[in-house]
């Protein structure tokens, strides 16, 4: 069997607003604050209560809407999406929100996450005559929705949501309502806010600060949030729920000014650094963090050890995150372009370099090299998460076994590969304790830790089981 992980899709950002005279413009600004969640494509669909109209394209949000396209998106309600680069090719057909026109109505659909049974469902639907327009698993829900015949749109949606499995935060817009749904494990963050009489839903609470919304509550696993002219209504499409928030949201994906399950991301990362300092102290002269997601952990490490925190690495703000570059060659070039070491800070010093994770090792190796070229006497790497050794089937773009350096090499081997003087990862218990156990009575305090230990919180389907079996065979 090929070692390629099948079924992985994107980590994205979604935003929606109901009943605001500048709905499309508010959605634009909300998506702008979520741009870190997806830089491949963007789109917005609005409704005036009669028709739905949308615009989407490849590229950053500002590029997609740079020619006045927002002016055409009239109406008091809208949803939007920013898309993350995936293993597949870039295609406009996969940029969301998807917009479907039916005989008597229309539907816009946006999705953050990944369905683990998408292949099975797609095959069944195609055998029944469905014609798919995209390669995205998001489209599966629309086909399931139209095949349910309860006579109620909301009930049809509940039926469809109980057929899809995996990680999903959905947002749907019709002429009459805005609907959001979160999978039974709550892998992806999703929150509700309010601007006056207007309701807002977003992937991260940082979007609320941008658009001037007040936080109302988080969307809970298995919930269906329905917003219409009568207000906010909360229903459930399943009672079989178990909190499994993606731990990488706290480690890497989310913005530090966001709150997830009542826990501030910056504070959680700072605690990761403090715990890392207790687990992996080393004598050094300066602590520096890899911008931007590791700075909070680096501050925590410095505070706990008393070693001064310094800006030893500077980021070029006009270069995209290397984690989302679609090819290894571009990743290599991206690392060279996006970071510089500050010679005046690190020259002749023993440096502790804090990073949030090591996926492929490319970035870490280059940063260690940058610090040495700037005159660092020693470079000790400390990672504020456990080793990423298992694929994610719920929405993180980890593409192949060969790309996960921790799945193929020991910590000592990785240390040599990246050229560091020492390397230590945060323990699994350390990460769980540092985040703060948002749901203390549930496994891992309500976190999904599968990327670190292979303990997947959902039933896996045949192709995932086959893939994991192949990994075990390779390791023997």
TrEMBL record:
SUPFAM superfamilies: N-terminal nucleophile aminohydrolases (Ntn hydrolases), PRTase-like. GO terms for biological process: 'de novo' IMP biosynthetic process; purine nucleobase biosynthetic process. GO terms for molecular function: amidophosphoribosyltransferase activity; magnesium ion binding. Its cofactor is Mg(2+). It comes from the Bacteria. Mg(2+) binds at residues 293, 355-356. It catalyses: 5-phospho-beta-D-ribosylamine + L-glutamate + diphosphate = 5-phospho-alpha-D-ribose 1-diphosphate + L-glutamine + H2O. It is an enzyme of class 2 (transferase). InterPro entries: GATase_2_dom, Ntn_hydrolases_N, PRTase-like, PRTase_dom, PurF, PurF_N. Binds 1 Mg(2+) ion per subunit. The active site is at 12 (nucleophile). Keywords: Glutamine amidotransferase, Glycosyltransferase, Magnesium, Metal-binding, Purine biosynthesis, Transferase. Pfam families: GATase_6, Pribosyltran. Pathway: Purine metabolism; IMP biosynthesis via de novo pathway; N(1)-(5-phospho-D-ribosyl)glycinamide from 5-phospho-alpha-D-ribose 1-diphosphate: step 1/2. Its EC number is 2.4.2.14. Residues 12-230 form the Glutamine amidotransferase type-2 domain. In the C-terminal section; belongs to the purine/pyrimidine phosphoribosyltransferase family. HAMAP family: PurF (MF_01931). NCBIfam families: purF (TIGR01134). Catalyzes the formation of phosphoribosylamine from phosphoribosylpyrophosphate (PRPP) and glutamine. This is Amidophosphoribosyltransferase. It comes from Listeria weihenstephanensis. The lineage of its organism: Bacteria, Bacillati, Bacillota, Bacilli, Bacillales. The gene is purF.
